[in-house]
Input
Amino acid sequence: MSFRWTCPYCNHKCTIGGSNYDKHTHVFDLNNKFKNKLGLESIIIVCPNSECEEITIGSALYKSTNYREYGYQSPPNNPSIYSWKLLPHSHAKPFPSYIPAPILNDYNEACAISDLSPKASATLARRCLQGMIRDYWGIVDKTLYKEINALEDKVSEQVWESLNAVREIGNIGAHMEQDINIIVDVEADEAKILIELLEILFEEWYIARYERNLKLSRIQQIRDTKKAIKEQ
Output
């Protein structure tokens, strides 16, 4: 068996086969509350990139889809009861160090707790966004609301609406509703979508600017080299 895979540590895209992959299932019953034979599946992948070779470990608990007396079977379309990401500790992607450390720290923390506390993750995503607006655009105001408004004519309408959405969802984690009986939750998959927006902004703001500056500097270096040759 082989499959396409992207390493969560080095972002290397590769094909995983038997030499980099191992899967085992521990089957048990033990009179559990589900009244069903269960399988605890563990998956281990080692990155084949020689400069990485990091270990990724995940685990999931499944119900048997066969009758109890026929043992355990868990086909691909059988959803897990629980799942755990053991290594790496979060789904944070590696980003270059020229992105300011405080911004990356907030991003990494938001990723690390997106499953355990989606509301807290959304709040950190909001804080990370504010840091980016202040650092990249140089816009500093009393509130994030005003800072995003100042960006309205500088980014596309879709991006601007998304920035406001991060602010509003992040507020859910930061502030209690006036009526404490009204519970507005942020789901784990929703927190991850906010994090994906941060990753888009890292790419479109910081990385695109850095790569553009490199290319422009290279053009100037070529010009200076040619000019020096002509002047000899």
About this structure: Residues 170 and 190 are 11 Å apart (CA to CA). The chain has five helices and six strands. The chain has a mean pLDDT of 88.
